[in-house]
């Protein structure tokens, strides 16, 4: 790594794991591009106090027709001469609606597919399109889940979108082997971490999610991971000399 700027693009940066990632990346010489729907002005002050520059891109990621333009707008702010590293973390996600396929409103399932699969894939396509030939580190991380490889009753859309994202990673990594300046890409499962998403899971009915008691017990017994700690581990990996492109890692591997 050199002393040129690092540009880090994080989706779902307003709270939870994405916010913790932004805090760990924040330092002088880093430009953070934060994407979410909520107002992030409080977070901006905190990150700037650590020396980072921050650009907010307020965007609903289910508006998937906007995403190519969003990445183009971000890319226009990145100078090839002044930059040494570009990262994209597709972190935004949603678990709702929880319940067996066929039960809930079609539009709710569609939103889940858009935020968990369509948006990260389209943003990655646009990222590769803009930065393919740039001779510097360009790293993409897809935030996945243990649910990508284990079916849970009530999570058909969540599990299948995460599994889809993991296959996307393997395929893109294979394609990139042929490139002069390959973009590196991996997926990462943070494990159960204490964010709003876990709260939503604990509040689900047993009818929709029979495993709910397991998640409640894990919470009561203090067996839920610390989002801030796991975020720090992932940031260290992303900035290290070794990046396991094409692989699916979990918090247990770090
Ligand atoms: N929590 C866990 O135990 C756990 C376990 C395994 C994997 N994961 C994965 O970790 C990632 C982060 O989850 P988390 O637990 O931090 O979730 P969270 O606390 O619910 O945060 C979700 C983030 O996604 C953003 N988001 C949601 N819908 C959006 C939309 N339509 N447009 C733009 N941004 C949107 C939210 O921002 P706004 O609401 O401001 O838009 C928020 O910043 C997800 O991919 C999740 O699947 C979490």
What does this structure look like?
- The chain is of the alpha/beta class and about 250 residues long.
- Helix content is about 40%, strand content about 15%.
- The chain is built from eight helices and seven strands, in the order βαβαβαβαβαβαααβ.
- It has a seven-stranded parallel beta sheet with strand order 3-2-1-4-5-6-7, sandwiched between helices.
- It starts with a strand and ends with a strand.
- The structure holds NADP nicotinamide-adenine-dinucleotide phosphate (NAP).
- The site of NADP nicotinamide-adenine-dinucleotide phosphate has 28 residues, from helix 1 and helix 6.
- NADP nicotinamide-adenine-dinucleotide phosphate (NAP) binds near residues 36, 62 and 198.
